[in-house]
Write a structure and sequence with these properties.
- The longest helix has 16 residues.
- The relative contact order is 0.21.
- The chain has 4 helices and 7 strands, in the order αββββαβαββα.
- By secondary structure, the chain is an alpha+beta fold.
- The mean pLDDT is about 85.
- It has a single domain, classed as VC0802-like (2-Layer Sandwich), CATH 3.30.2130.10.
Length: about 160
Amino acid sequence: MLEISPELKGLLARTKLVVLPEDYVVVYLPIGVQAIPGEWFRPATTRFAAVIQEPKLITMVVARRKWMRMQNMFEKCDVTGPYKVIHFDVKLSLVANGYMAAIGSVLTASNICALPLSSFKHDHIIVPKADLPRTVKVLRSLLDSCRKKPIRRIAKSNK
């Protein structure tokens, strides 16, 4: 497993896992599709969404129920899912070195596929819904191990 620095261990120890209740889908759209109306992403109706544009592809992560209402807007798309979003509730900075590497390391060691997504202040992972219970168990184990205080051994004196 990855060596975890004391600073990173402290950050992981303060982390709370939040599993968003909605099922999500990952949608692949070709470049040149019509613009997605802003009202689809109002904070009052959207807990989590991500849109990533690359030179030849647009990837969108959106709640499955929302996708069901908006899918007719697009002639061509590929959809995969269902997925669950796990939000790491801890205040991060852009210099939090190794945070996602530690999470990725334990998930990889447990043969769990996850799609990491980061925002300015928080990290998230997207996992297949079927893998959610195992993923949460593995992540809780990591976080709990970071919360444990090391056992201090008292040296015996030879008097």
